[in-house]
């Protein structure tokens, strides 16, 4: 038995228990708990497949375009010198648990406009050693023409995107526009197959009193993202972490986007985005 979520859409893994978005003990903003414990829990629960998707290192030049909190930057992703240990850990875990569960080892890669080339190089280098990779937007252009973290804290969001807090449609459209550019970018033969938490921009929606509807122009950008994904045969990460964030209380993406994805024909894989065992248990064990 496991928890059920109410979702609209076409499940890529219909009838199977899967989690397509997981972090490990190497994640600097995680709990440091060994992901092996999480894997054992998943095997107990009868899971068919898990995807480890650790945050890929940020491109070296990105720090100069970043204007936000230093701690947010320093803890956003693993370092370049941790890539090999991460892949080695993945191989070890596959050896240990591979006979009980389908374990994919990959990265959650950031789409950062202007840094496409380094991202393509990274994916070309690690791609052959990875399974499912995710493409996500955690950073967006804001104040001072710099990049700011979208999901670090309410205060940081306010600092980076303050001028747009009263122009929600513009702010959201800017986010989806960045996702669209990411989706249209060719990252080479190992371009990520799945798009992470498509509407992460709403993470603090209750704090900032954002509405849950989109204007026509924003809907059009979302439609274009989904049509592109359909054409490319890519999928969406239906991310349940948002449900458990006090100022979000909703999955990523919203039911509106889920409905649109269903109509357009973009399948999903559910992901808990767990950064430790207790989040995983909370996401999957019935109360
Ligand atoms: Zn994370
Ligand atoms: Zn993410």
Automatic annotation (TrEMBL):
It is an enzyme of class 3 (hydrolase). GO terms for cellular component: cytoplasm. One of its GO terms (molecular function) is histidinol-phosphatase activity. The keyword Cell cycle does not apply. InterPro entries: Histidinol_P_phosphatase_HisJ, PHP_dom, Pol/histidinol_Pase-like. It catalyses: L-histidinol phosphate + H2O = L-histidinol + phosphate. Its EC number is 3.1.3.15. Residues 19-237 form the PHP domain. Keywords: Amino-acid biosynthesis, Histidine biosynthesis, Hydrolase. GO terms for biological process: L-histidine biosynthetic process. Belongs to the PHP hydrolase family. HisK subfamily. This is Histidinol-phosphatase. The gene is hisK.
